[in-house]
Amino acid sequence: MANHREHLIAGAAAGVGICLLAAVAAGRKISIPELIGAAVSGMTFSKLPDILEPAIHPNHRSTFHSLGFIGAAAPPAWKWSEEKMREHRSLAEMSRTRAAAATSQQERNHWQMMALVHDLAAGFFVGIVPGYVSHLLADSLIPKGLPIL
Ligand SMILES: [Zn+2]
Protein backbone atom coordinates (compact mmCIF):
# COMPACT_ATOMS: atom_id res chain seq x y z
CA MET A 1 0.00 0.00 0.00
CA ALA A 2 1.39 3.39 -0.98
CA ASN A 3 2.09 5.68 1.95
CA HIS A 4 1.70 9.45 2.19
CA ARG A 5 5.13 10.18 0.69
CA GLU A 6 4.76 7.67 -2.16
CA HIS A 7 1.38 9.17 -3.11
CA LEU A 8 2.95 12.66 -3.22
CA ILE A 9 5.85 11.47 -5.40
CA ALA A 10 3.52 9.56 -7.75
CA GLY A 11 1.22 12.60 -7.94
CA ALA A 12 4.06 14.99 -8.79
CA ALA A 13 5.43 12.55 -11.38
CA ALA A 14 1.99 12.12 -12.96
CA GLY A 15 1.39 15.88 -13.14
CA VAL A 16 4.81 16.61 -14.63
CA GLY A 17 4.60 13.61 -17.00
CA ILE A 18 1.23 14.61 -18.44
CA CYS A 19 2.35 18.25 -18.69
CA LEU A 20 5.44 17.14 -20.68
CA LEU A 21 3.34 14.87 -22.92
CA ALA A 22 0.84 17.67 -23.58
CA ALA A 23 3.65 20.06 -24.54
CA VAL A 24 5.31 17.50 -26.83
CA ALA A 25 1.96 16.54 -28.43
CA ALA A 26 1.20 20.23 -29.08
CA GLY A 27 4.74 20.78 -30.41
CA ARG A 28 5.46 23.65 -28.07
CA LYS A 29 8.29 24.62 -25.76
CA ILE A 30 8.38 23.10 -22.29
CA SER A 31 7.82 25.75 -19.67
CA ILE A 32 9.48 25.28 -16.26
CA PRO A 33 6.79 27.27 -14.37
CA GLU A 34 4.11 25.08 -15.97
CA LEU A 35 5.96 21.94 -14.86
CA ILE A 36 6.24 23.34 -11.32
CA GLY A 37 2.49 24.13 -11.29
CA ALA A 38 1.71 20.60 -12.52
CA ALA A 39 3.95 19.04 -9.85
CA VAL A 40 2.26 21.06 -7.09
CA SER A 41 -1.28 20.19 -8.21
CA GLY A 42 -0.31 16.57 -8.90
CA MET A 43 0.88 16.29 -5.28
CA THR A 44 -2.12 18.17 -3.90
CA PHE A 45 -4.72 16.14 -5.79
CA SER A 46 -2.93 12.84 -5.15
CA LYS A 47 -4.06 13.29 -1.54
CA LEU A 48 -7.70 14.07 -2.34
CA PRO A 49 -9.06 10.48 -2.45
CA ASP A 50 -7.80 9.84 1.12
CA ILE A 51 -9.10 13.23 2.28
CA LEU A 52 -12.56 12.29 0.96
CA GLU A 53 -12.28 8.74 2.31
CA PRO A 54 -9.67 8.72 5.10
CA ALA A 55 -7.59 5.56 5.49
CA ILE A 56 -8.94 4.79 8.96
CA HIS A 57 -9.69 1.10 8.27
CA PRO A 58 -8.78 -1.43 5.54
CA ASN A 59 -12.14 -0.95 3.78
CA HIS A 60 -12.00 2.85 3.56
CA ARG A 61 -11.88 2.76 -0.25
CA SER A 62 -15.37 3.44 -1.51
CA THR A 63 -17.00 5.66 -4.15
CA PHE A 64 -14.16 8.20 -4.48
CA HIS A 65 -11.64 5.38 -4.89
CA SER A 66 -13.81 3.49 -7.39
CA LEU A 67 -13.23 2.76 -11.05
CA GLY A 68 -16.80 3.88 -11.77
CA PHE A 69 -16.24 7.28 -10.18
CA ILE A 70 -12.95 7.92 -11.96
CA GLY A 71 -14.37 6.64 -15.26
CA ALA A 72 -17.31 9.04 -15.00
CA ALA A 73 -15.52 12.05 -13.48
CA ALA A 74 -12.11 12.04 -15.17
CA PRO A 75 -13.17 12.86 -18.78
CA PRO A 76 -15.27 15.97 -17.93
CA ALA A 77 -12.73 17.05 -15.27
CA TRP A 78 -9.90 16.73 -17.81
CA LYS A 79 -11.87 18.67 -20.44
CA TRP A 80 -12.50 21.45 -17.90
CA SER A 81 -8.89 21.57 -16.74
CA GLU A 82 -7.63 21.63 -20.34
CA GLU A 83 -9.87 24.66 -21.03
CA LYS A 84 -8.52 26.41 -17.91
CA MET A 85 -4.96 25.55 -18.97
CA ARG A 86 -5.56 27.09 -22.42
CA GLU A 87 -7.07 30.21 -20.84
CA HIS A 88 -4.04 30.68 -18.60
CA ARG A 89 -1.60 29.93 -21.39
CA SER A 90 -3.14 32.62 -23.56
CA LEU A 91 -3.16 35.07 -20.62
CA ALA A 92 0.53 34.27 -20.07
CA GLU A 93 1.20 34.90 -23.77
CA MET A 94 -0.67 38.22 -23.62
CA SER A 95 1.30 39.21 -20.50
CA ARG A 96 4.60 38.47 -22.31
CA THR A 97 3.48 40.60 -25.26
CA ARG A 98 2.64 43.45 -22.87
CA ALA A 99 5.96 43.02 -21.04
CA ALA A 100 7.80 43.32 -24.36
CA ALA A 101 5.90 46.50 -25.19
CA ALA A 102 6.21 48.03 -21.70
CA THR A 103 7.45 51.61 -21.53
CA SER A 104 8.89 51.40 -18.01
CA GLN A 105 10.80 48.83 -15.99
CA GLN A 106 8.00 48.77 -13.42
CA GLU A 107 5.42 47.97 -16.09
CA ARG A 108 7.69 45.29 -17.60
CA ASN A 109 8.18 43.69 -14.15
CA HIS A 110 4.44 43.67 -13.58
CA TRP A 111 3.65 41.88 -16.86
CA GLN A 112 6.54 39.43 -16.44
CA MET A 113 5.15 38.56 -12.99
CA MET A 114 1.68 38.10 -14.48
CA ALA A 115 3.11 35.80 -17.19
CA LEU A 116 4.77 33.70 -14.47
CA VAL A 117 1.54 33.48 -12.44
CA HIS A 118 -0.45 32.37 -15.50
CA ASP A 119 2.21 29.81 -16.50
CA LEU A 120 2.09 28.33 -12.98
CA ALA A 121 -1.73 28.30 -13.11
CA ALA A 122 -1.76 26.63 -16.56
CA GLY A 123 0.42 23.84 -15.18
CA PHE A 124 -1.63 23.60 -12.01
CA PHE A 125 -4.78 22.81 -14.00
CA VAL A 126 -2.94 20.14 -16.02
CA GLY A 127 -1.85 18.30 -12.85
CA ILE A 128 -5.27 17.93 -11.19
CA VAL A 129 -6.62 14.81 -12.94
CA PRO A 130 -3.27 12.98 -13.27
CA GLY A 131 -2.65 13.62 -9.55
CA TYR A 132 -5.99 12.11 -8.53
CA VAL A 133 -5.64 9.17 -10.94
CA SER A 134 -2.09 8.47 -9.67
CA HIS A 135 -3.53 7.85 -6.20
CA LEU A 136 -6.00 5.29 -7.52
CA LEU A 137 -3.31 3.62 -9.64
CA ALA A 138 -1.06 3.31 -6.59
CA ASP A 139 -3.94 2.01 -4.45
CA SER A 140 -4.92 -0.48 -7.18
CA LEU A 141 -1.59 -2.26 -6.62
CA ILE A 142 -2.76 -3.61 -3.26
CA PRO A 143 -4.22 -7.14 -3.26
CA LYS A 144 -7.71 -5.80 -2.46
CA GLY A 145 -7.65 -3.62 -5.58
CA LEU A 146 -10.21 -0.87 -6.09
CA PRO A 147 -14.00 -1.02 -5.85
CA ILE A 148 -15.98 -0.93 -9.11
CA LEU A 149 -18.42 1.60 -7.61
ZN1 LIG B 1 -6.34 5.75 -0.95
Report on the structure:
By secondary structure, the chain is mainly α. The chain has one domain (4-140). The chain contains 5 helices and no strands. It has helices at 4-25, 32-46, 48-52, 67-100, 105-140. The protein is elongated. The chain binds zinc ion (ZN).
Uncertain ranges: none
Count of alpha/pi helices: 5
The major sheet is characterized as: none
- Strand content is under 5%
Rough shape? elongated
Q: Topology as H/E string? A: HHHHH
Cα end-to-end separation: 20 Å
Q: Which value, in Å, is the CA radius of gyration?
A: 18 Å
The count of DSSP E runs of length 2 or more, i.e. the number of strands, is 0
Q: Briefly, what is this?
A:
It contains five helices and no strands. It has helices at about 5-25, 30-45, 50, 65-100, 105-140.
Task: Give a topology summary.
Elements: H1 4-25, H2 32-46, H3 48-52, H4 67-100, H5 105-140
Helix pairs in contact: 1-2, 1-5, 2-5, 4-5
Zinc ion (ZN) is lined by residues 49-50, 55, 61, 65, 135, 139.
Name its key features.
single chain, 149 residues, mainly alpha, 5 helices, binds zinc ion
